[in-house]
Design a protein that fits this description.
There is one protein chain. The chain is an all-beta fold. It has a single domain, classed as Rieske [2Fe-2S] iron-sulphur domain (Rieske Iron-sulfur Protein). The chain contains no helices and ten strands. The chain has a four-stranded antiparallel β-sheet with strand order 2-3-4-8, with no helix packed on it. Strands 1-10-9 form a three-stranded antiparallel β-sheet, with no helix packed on it. It starts with 8 loop residues before the first strand and ends with a strand.
Length: about 110
């Protein structure tokens, strides 16, 4: 699993600010993160950098289940692990997320 160990949690907004299946960019401690709300209510946070050699933002992708579909390169990324699915290869840095009293907290 590629989720960073839990460090200090920072508020990223309220749960109502995140739309299901659509990414939102949040900046925490100088890092630009892509935050996704899956249709089952699970929230994922990742570096907003596509692992493709040409790069690009991840927040523009669409979530289905726990997978992110990147519209730039047609890559499928598992949001639980950060791993790009075969036949492509790569990995996205994921961050621990928790929700308390309607606030989304991300560990950076």
């Amino acid at each position: 699993m590629t989720t960073k160990p839990a460090g200090t949690y920072y508020p990223a907004g309220t749960i109502d600010e995140f739309l299901p299946r659509i990414g939102r960019v949040v900046e925490i401690q100088g890092k630009q993160l892509a935050v996704f709300l899956a249709s089952d209510g699970t929230i994922f946070a990742a570096d907003n950098r596509n692992p493709h050699p040409k790069g690009g933002p991840l927040a523009e992708g669409i979530v289905s289940g726990h997978y992110l579909y990147d519209p730039l390169y047609d890559w499928k990324i598992d949001l639980s692990t950060g791993l790009v699915q075969a036949p492509d290869q790569g990995q996205v840095q994921m961050y621990s997320v928790k929700v308390e009293n309607g606030t989304v907290w991300i560990a950076v």
